[in-house]
Amino acid sequence: MKSPSPESVKLLVTTVQELSLARDLDTVMKIVRTAARKLTGADGATFVLRDGDLCYYAEEDAISPLWKGSRFPMDICISGWAMLNRQPAVIEDIYADSRIPADAYRPTFVKSLAMVPIRTIDPIGAIGNYWAVQRQPTEDEVWLLQSLADITAVTMENVNVYAELEQRVKERTLQLEAINKELEAFSYSVSHDLRAPLRAIRSYTEILQEDHVGNLSDEGRRITNKIIKGATDMGLLIDHLLTFFKTDKKELAKTTIPMKTMVTDIVDTLKIPEKERNIEFHIGEMPDAKGDPSLIKQVWENLITNAVKYTGHKEKAVIEIGNHNNGKGNVYHVKDNGAGFNMQYYDKLFAVFQRLHTAEEFNGNGIGLATVQRIVHRHGGQIWAEGKPGEGASFFFTLPSF
After folding, report:
1. In sequence order, what E strands does 263-363 have?
2. Do 244 and 352 form a contact (C-beta atoms < 8 A)?
3. Are 181 and 163 in contact (CB under 8 A)?
4. Which residues pair with 113 in a beta bridge?
5. pTM (global) more than 0.85
């Protein structure tokens, strides 16, 4: 066999490139029917799909109509022969070959043909070329046609995988939409149905303390104080849960954020209730960022508040807030010399309701860092941490560049 012409090889390469972008079978068939005819200079080309025991002539490109839309039994048509025998059928004179149902061809222009299977192992279709004059299809032409069929087989498999993945994505999207609706219903229930009894528990307990203080023993007062604290903590938990659930719902209103100004304001506010403590804040220079100010403020508030809380047992707390460039962009950080954590349990750090310290050591509900992670991820950034028990913790997060 002599080598195919450079023009034919170039066309084959171009067709491969087009097929690599195809995402559905209709597109594949339209590309292939045109390429099949151009590759050999044929007067017609057809794209046949195997449909059980039938040959389905799904697409064509020809000088006059062939059999588009028709179905024929596998054992009586030449495309079926190519599929069943897993090899090309090359016919110079269709009326002199017993494999051809001559009556089906008489109304057409076809005098000669070449038919190749799409996939030689368990064929899924066939590609045919037809000529209006009697001629022997060359080895080059058959090779080009079979090469196109082989490429088409891979493309069809990729299309099937893509369609399956797309369907899974759709199903997953529907599941997530259902979950979100359930979360919205839960949020409404939490907001309206749980707050009322909590307020009643706290109010009645406070009334009990105020109006019946003389009838309460020290133990009674201790118990009522615990009830009030429990109701207050539960109220805060509800607030944090609602914040967590609403984080993904809030539409991002991105603008330029003066990070150092925001951090300085937060630190100044936190210093007031902590004025009796020896806390040393180091605030470095920080570049502005692009994001939703209200959400990014939550990130800073949570990380800095945690640093203040987890240095509570230190005689002198040192908290460093700043940023550095890691070669890919700005990385903001909050570092402290507090209780730290064991990296062995890192996978729990950003999980809802997961805490690495007991409530007796440090109060909290395990929602804050999960919320922070959601906010950072929504902005297209990353967040991570490093820690060592008794030696402090460092939290880092990134935001996309302007």
Report:
1. 279-283, 289-291, 317-325, 330-336
2. yes
3. no
4. 91, 130
5. no
